[in-house]
Amino acid sequence: MHVLSSSELAVTAIFALILAVIAYWIIRNIPKMSGDIAAFRKRTLVWTQVSLVLTVLQLNFKAGDWRFSIVLGLIVLFTGSIWLSARYHDIRSTLDPESKDSEVH
């Protein structure tokens, strides 16, 4: 099995940190998005599914080499977290009609 070197671990950590910052920025701006949040949610779900399938295929066909699978796994976490937060915001906005009334006035 391939052991990750310290430089590969450092680059992976930097990539994870960049994805975490971008995800935080997107999640914080979801309530400010104008338009249909359902379309955004559907797009992020598609990208989550695509990255998950690629991760599983990579794990199945490239035994012993974890580098690309780790990157794909981070992308799954990134897109999945954005999808979950968009879904949470969509559910919360449909269950709380008072917040819509207060935004209009």
UniProtKB/TrEMBL annotation:
Entry's transmembrane regions: 6-25, 45-61, 67-86
Keyword set, alphabetical order: Membrane, Transmembrane, Transmembrane helix
Protein name, as recorded: YtpI-like protein
Keyword Transmembrane: yes
